[in-house]
Amino acid sequence: MPFALLLLAIFISTSSVLGQTSATPQLRNDVKLERTLRAALDGFQGDAGVYVRNLRTGKGVVINADTLFPTASTIKIPIQCGLFAKIQQGDLTYQQELTYSDSLHYDDGIVGSLKNGAKMPLSQVVMLMETVSDNTGSLWCQALAGGGSAINNWLEANGFHQTRVNSRTPGRQENRTRYGWGQTTPRELAELLAYIREGRAISPDASEEMYRNLGRQYWDSHGLSQIPPNVKVATKNGAVDQSRSEVVLVEAPHGAYVYCVMTKNQKDASWQRSNEGFTLLRNVAAILWKHFEPKSDWKPSDGYEKWY
């Protein structure tokens, strides 16, 4: 074989292997589901993106899934990854005792309400970051992970080229002004969650612990309200005035699926449950559950609304 053809063959072979191990695999389009989801997005007053992948069949839907959106609190998934990378390197231990300082205060969440000098294990701070989305605790974890630059380096090295921490990260002020704390795409955020579930983030043991943390969610009144409570989910959501987002991996009876819904530039910046973005999160979750579990006769309780 001529040398040039040999090089070409090696390149094609290598590209094929890289494609198979990519953090964002190719999908086979689910035409029926796409039609239903596009109808749900029709008339939305803002920009919206949706990414869905059935982990069993490889079928899914991509709608503006490679568009950049503000992460809001969903950035706490990458922060957790960066933190566990530090633990894996031996720079931190998961159960080590931390000492809270008033200098860490960002808002009056659980961690921000601690007294100066209070003690808390790192594992509890991480739990609060993912479960109740504690902002002071999350920024503390970001710093312990080595800061936004270290987290972004981990994301890049693992194939997540669009997801980035912007806040308190040198050189990213312009991005912070535009997107806030972080930026990502629906595809990358969903696949990062799948990456963790598959045991590929940091190590199998680290992935397992991170996945457990993401399975304890306090904020369950939006997309999660449309999924039966006895079904295991791993999830994180986020919201700022003109943006709502939710990434969910559903361990459904007939095959797990992962999805992400993100919005930006919403006309509706209200904080009621009726907000157009919150409503979209619920609608998409309901559509997906009915599509992937068509024989399920479960539906949200008629009295569910009274709690919110």
From TrEMBL:
Write down the chemical reaction(s) this protein catalyses.
a beta-lactam + H2O = a substituted beta-amino acid
Q: Name one GO biological process term.
A: beta-lactam antibiotic catabolic process
InterPro entries documented for this protein: Beta-lactam/transpept-like, Beta-lactam_cat, Beta-lactam_class-A
Signal peptide region: 1-19
Q: Signal as a keyword?
A: yes
What are the alphabetically sorted keywords of the record? Hydrolase, Signal
GO MF terms, alphabetically ordered: beta-lactamase activity
Residues in Beta-lactamase class A catalytic domain copies: 49-263
Q: Which Pfam families does the UniProt record give?
A: Beta-lactamase2
Q: What is this protein called?
A: Serine hydrolase
The organism of origin for this protein: Spirosoma profusum
